[in-house]
Amino acid sequence: MNPTNSSDDNAQSATGKNERIGGDLVLETIQALGGRHVVGLPGQHALGLFDAIRRSDLHYLSSRVENNAGFMADGLARATGTVAPLFLSAGPGALTSLAALQEAAASSIPVLAVAAQIPVRGLGGGRHGYLHELPDQAASFKGVVKDTFTVRHVSQIVPAVIEAWQHALDAPAGPVLLELPQDVLLERIDEDLFPVPTPMLVHGKTPRISQPLIERAAEILASAARPVIYAGGGVRAAAATTELLQLAERLAAPVATTFGGKEVFPWEHPLSLQSWAEDLHTTEFLEDADVLLVVGSGLGELSSNYFTLDPRGTVIHIDADLGQLTANYRGMGIHADARDALSGILAALPEGDASEEKFALSAARAAEVRDKVAARLAAQPLEKEMKLIAELRAAVPAHTDTFWDMTVLAYWAWSAWNPQQGISASAQGSGGLGYGLPAAIGSALAAHTDGGSSKLAVSGDGGSLYGIAELATLAQHNLDVTWLIIDDGGYGILREYMVAEFGAATATELTRPDYVALAKSFGISARKVSIEDAPAAVAEGLAAGGPQLVLVETKLELFAPTHLDRPAAHEK
After folding, report:
1. pTM score, whole prediction
2. d(CA 66, CA 452)
3. Domain interval for residue 255
């Protein structure tokens, strides 16, 4: 039997180099929409997609595991600012991507998962017994992605790709599944009926804005004595950083950012509270605002300091996700894209900036919070951790994009890492392991083709084992990624949690490979260094370019949490 086609389905396969099949229509449409890259893994039912790649100008990144491919698409989307196509096979291949797509959904990252399917006659209760067959593959994705689309005829390919691409971009952005049966992908194309799609410009749709709500919000903010802004990843997704800065300065409002919104406000600005969302002093400052403007954040578990945040003033909540709007905290809800809303509020405010006196007072209050946070950290025995994060930040060029796995150093970076004109991305949206390296690889693909700097990935030894196969991808594509692995012998965060809760840790200790030798076996430059030498080694790797691995064996501690001493807001 032909491995790409069952003879009893009579699906046609292209054999000539210049012939087009359904798979070509998929890639041609992606390119017409502005896509330049694609990530994925081939599989029996998806071979029509991958055969088309050799006739396409799209740059293909070949992952080794579908979950890692999903994280690569996440990093690629962040780097390009548009939809990242992810090619998957049917059944097990498609399902393996779900954890990565959950992260994309939680962080509003537009990923188009293009998954193959069994032949059309097997869908919907038809002929059974196909390899990789699921009773309802799309249903497995419905709790994760924004929507699912299933193509049944070759004539549906172009409009379905356009619709799915559009939907991935629509605010709030996120992942979408497009299913393409094997026989549809392999069907020969009649050149007269299916011309190559021409370039088209697709913008994400944003919610219709309520002008009366915007005007009322402007009135409330203009009359506030102690306004504070809490900005999340929705500001990044909407490209609204300029509007946020203008509004903060017009109101003289201090700005705190969530972990997912670290890049949206200048770190060293006098009004910046930075990203210490889990610190008691930040939480209390947000609570003390007479008007708290929350924009682009759902105020979930982490951004609310584990739901202990209890604002005493008026809350104005702006979010493009209707389901998150005022779901956790009551107040004025404005269903809007962050840029649309902030621009509207700026236009509705009275003329003139805040007085110099008010600005100076707000800046002093923000500085006081930063000082309190620093003093709380200094009172703990965390000299090694604070020195490492500070020296690493100083050693890494300001424009470097960084990608952090769920590891102790990443928990520090959520709050303490100054993005400095670069992306600072982590898996904190859904908290899955294995994000750091593949996301950096996806971002590096865009830099490799468009021109850009090296990327930094940071993992613990536990999380690194999830993505270890992608050393092969890194070597094959010779991408500019430096991978810093902090090896503490196991799942360090879980170890801390279990010891704190139960007095002992179970199932947290791991047997690890010789990471340096393993990397070198792929032809990747790798070395083991002391914690003192790690920042310089990372800087040297980034400067050298190409794949690099830096291993540090040490145990790091987390800073003491503050939420444990506070009841959840609903319990007060």
Report:
1. 0.93
2. 26
3. 211-376
